[in-house]
Please model this.
Amino acid sequence: MSLAKPMMRGMLAKRLRLHLPLAFVVSFSSALAFNLLIAQPRKRAYAEFYKNYDSVKDFNAMREAGIFESVRPIEK
Amino acid sequence: MFHLAAGRVGSLAAKRATAALSTSSARMMASHGHEVSTAVDMSKPQYTDSADYPLPDVPYKQVLTDADKSLKQKEKGPWNQLSKEEKLALYRLKFLKTYPEMRHSTPEWKTALGAALFLMGFTGFIVWWQKVYVFPKRPRTFEGDWPEKQLKRMLDMRINPVQGISSKWDYEKGQWK
Model:
């Protein structure tokens, strides 16, 4: 009865052969995915919003809605 | 059915608790899947089946029959004179389980999952009782047209206008985009 000699050493190295590159791939993909799906669209959304933003017009619209306590809606 | 599940959960919890409290994995009881009827002398070295403790402190079979004893005598001689069956018998004298047998999965996960889900479901009844007997009345901000007015005020204040709620409202048309 001759069994194959079991693996005596090198278990960590064997594990790392797969998992170390995998760790890098997963990390980089997550970062890339976050950047492409969340960070870039968010930056674009803010750029678009402020490209033609008129803060005075916005303020007057809010004033008309009557949400401020310091200024009343414009009397006509 | 609930009592049985609770009993099984109890014994499993006790086993895990003892394992957690032990100083090393070698101090686990050798479990055969049933309750130990007599008290074990814990001051003596124990036999353990553990993947990270390959050579337990004592052999599994410590009380040997005459056949076992003669086999042990034969073991003192050259090993290539032992037959395959004898070698296996010697192994089983020393160890209860082989590594594959030790690592073999059990159906315990089904009990664990079932008990967990059952208790989660039971929690629903507890919460229902709490709704009837414990919880106070809901705040008035949930009644009538208050939520609608609240939302209108948020839109008027331009809350989160870039990507949030106000960005979804069309201010010219007075409707959702």
